[in-house]
Amino acid sequence: MGIKGLTSLLSDEAPSCIKHMDIKTLFGRKVAIDASMSLYQFLIAVRQSDGQQMMSESGEITSHLLGFFYRTLRMVDYGIKPVYVFDGKPPDLKKEVLLKRFGRREEAREQEEEQKDIADAEKLDQLARRQVRPTREHNTEVQRLLTLMGIPWIVAPCEAEAQCAELARAGKVYAAGSEDMDTLTFGTPILLKNLTASEQKKLPVTEIVLSKALEELQMPMSQFVDLCMLLGCDYLDPIKGVGPKKALKLIREHKSLDNVLEALQGDLKKTQEGHDSDTQADDTSAGAPKKRGGIQVPDFWPFQEARDLFLTPQVQDGATVQLKWEPPKTEDLVQFLCADKGFSEDRVRRGCEKLAKAVGQKQQGRLDGFFTLRSPDGISNNSLYERNVYRDDSSDNLEYLQEDPYPWMTMIDVKEADDYLHDPAVNPLHKSYEPWRALFNVGTIVILTLAILMLFAGYPILHQVTLDKEANDRETAAHQIMSFNSSYPSGFPIARANLSNQFNDERQMFIDPATPKSAYELESTFSKNNGKKFKLVFSDEFNTNGRSFYPGEDPFWEAVDLHYWATNNFEWYDPAAVYTRDGSLRIRLDQHPEHNLNFRGGMIQSWNKFCFRNGILAVSVQLPGFADVAGLWPAIWMMGNLGRAGYGATLQGTWPYSYDVCDVGTLMNQTLYNDEHPKGYPKDVSTLGGATVFNAQHETRSLSFLPGQKLSRCTCKGEDHPGPWDAKAQEFVGRAAPEIDVFEAQVAGINNVNKIQVSQSFQLAPYNWQYNITHANKSKAYNFYEWDENTSHINSYNGEITQQSLSGINMASQQAVQYVANDTDTETEGNFAIYSAEYKGGPDGYVAWTSDGKPAWEIYGTALGPDPLSKVGQRQFPKEPMYIILNLGISRNFGYVDWDKLSDHFPFEMAIDWVRVYQDPDDPEADTTCNPKNMPTEDYINRHIEAYTNANYTVWGGTPEEGGYGADWPLNNQYIKGCDASTRSKDPGDPSWTYKEAPRVPSSLVTNTPGAEGDWIWGNL
Known about the structure:
- Residues 497-923 form the GH16 domain.
- The chain is of the alpha+beta class.
- It has 5 domains: 6-218, 5'-nuclease (Rossmann fold), CATH 3.40.50.1010; 219-272 and 297-313, DNA polymerase, domain 1, CATH 1.10.150; 364-429, no CATH class; 443-475; 586-1005, Jelly Rolls (Sandwich).
- The strands form 6 sheets. Strands 15, 16, 17, 20, 21, 23, 26, 27, 29, 30, 31 and 35 form a 12-stranded mixed sheet that branches.
- A hairpin with a 5-residue loop joins strand 32 and strand 33 (846-851).
């Protein structure tokens, strides 16, 4: 609805604030557009010649996609850069309006049903349009379309108009584009209407400038908001008897809505008293009483809550919003619009060419930008027209605003005091030649010319001559690491070093120049390597202050912007929580409300930027918080590049598998169902296989609730799989996203004293029977260097239905903790401690950990042997390219949270002095790439880039309504119909079998059954 009557009121009372213009005049502007309003308009307006909505051959509505695609192309054609903003959760005050809209749609539906046989086509078309309602699927399809077009979009926390206004106020865009006038009430400096209207209507774009409206109305913003509420808005019904003119008069007279209502209540009381006296005088009159006219204020009119929504709307801070226009993904767009929705391929490809051209070229700067002064706060002030406008520093254009396109003519008729100096007819300067002045002028010109030549020619030549001769090597090496051709700033502190003749040109190493030479080698921490020297291949010393890690800002790291829902974290991970200061990387956890959560933490990843296989990941860390207070969850770990931490769709069916065998271990729930095994194979896998204490919380004795290994050796040929293909076995190589934790820090009681420890683990699947590696293992599976039942021992947590964990507990440094060390000076001994994980992939590999700089424990390939009870084959240590993750969060999933002792000490910080990776120069399988030839990831990730970049997708298949990415699960040859199955499924499991829910077991009875978990767990091997 917007604001009732506001447009006509402004036309009458503040005409200079409204200007009608050709869309071409918006060349070079960035505009935030109310996507939800546009979606509704397109569903109503974009129709076939017979008035029906546009549809694909399969009967799917495509009006919204057609509207967004072609109207966006039109704007791009005119040099406009749009960003779309979608509605989030509506405020409670809007519920009544939404219910009324629902009622009107239902009324229209009933009328259409009643009149379908008697009404004319025009009437039925009107009724059909009144029933239009945008759905979640419409929103999802439009968002997918915009992503493929390279057009930025965001979902507002609440109202889209409010977020558009916030972006305009923050200088991210020039104006907000919407048909709703309440966008002005939310405070947008400039509102553009008719921006997405059909070109056939030839409607001019209407620009409304808020500052001019306030100036002509002679009222501050607070009064303007009160005026809008009095006119009637989405949150409040209009007051009967108060029109636009009356509303303006009341606000001007009484100054605020509070005073207006008080005055109206007084008038109503007097009217009521007069009415009562008239009634008494006419007691004897016949006939019905007359209805009293005049102003009527609704009984429930919560204007104060509405005022708060307008003045302090729930929005994302505009300064933190990152807007990026990217080249279109042409082939994916053709697949989506043409193959799936029936669009013309020729038109779509021509549209993509326009989009690519618009992104690839630098647009000509706007003329008016040359006549605008910029103040220190980033707002540009035009002294002739007294207008504040925006300046976006990231723009290629001079994005300023000037009313007059020819500002040099503005004061042509104004006489100035020094005009005589420029008029040769006044006081001609006869015999005024001054040689010194001429020499000075010529000399100045010569100096300026030389300075300009030095700036644009001399300096680049000098820079090229003195440039580091290995710059090209560094760039080439960086591109080999970064699969998507990521770029990095010139002069970024990366040096390439070949530290051994054993490393050839294909083995790239990236070493921070600040890394001391003494750190270029490190002894292997694995006991069976006999102290072999590993070579440094990567390091980041974090010595440059002020680094940030928003997407695209760093060649190796990226901080995520998401909620880590999988572990029920209390915080939102935000890039603002990750930065460098005083020689270390800081990851901060503070009580900062973010996305309806009470805390803000940080997670930084090297996903798809830097990966390695085989070697040592070592870090120097100061843990957050206290050494004796539980609750924080700091972690440093690594994961296979095919799964991106925090992006649930990419992890379903990949994490935490580490398996290259084709058998029952690749199936959903590690169970085969068919006519021969209607209760499942292996026997008792769902009734006893998981009868352990940690499954009591799940009320089940089932071994596994995993969906199955999606990219397994059992995947049928021709299915969607990253490869490679094993030509000898005629099978795919099994692929997944295994996890190795350098540490997860926790506080536990030791002899009645709380101390900080680290859990150092290898997470894997498929599982042993009851997650036990020793019941069928007669050889040594692991080794603790200093076994102690209190300080260095096997973790009692060995797994549950979601993962198996080969985990050891070791003492952390009790000194290198935030509120023990009390400073982050990296040179002070004891402020930081070293932790590491060394691994070698394959079934015969190993993982070895250190804690506080000392060897802690190690685990051998014998721990991963076949299991005769769960019927799984030999597991393996990771052969995938592994990327690095560093994060700090808070969750009950990892243990008790001592709120009483933590709450007064926020913020907490984990400080990382450095991160280093070492590799064996004699290991032919060691490399530093995310896309190795024999374990490729790039093509697969590119095929599913939406899943890897949209954290809202939580499952691989599924539907948009349940957060599904919507991809089919690959066929598995172990299921009933195997590779001959004709049915495709978006859900895991056998598409030919109807699964039953696992039997529920009361928590107290999960381990109370013969054959349940006993004291033999992790026997002392």
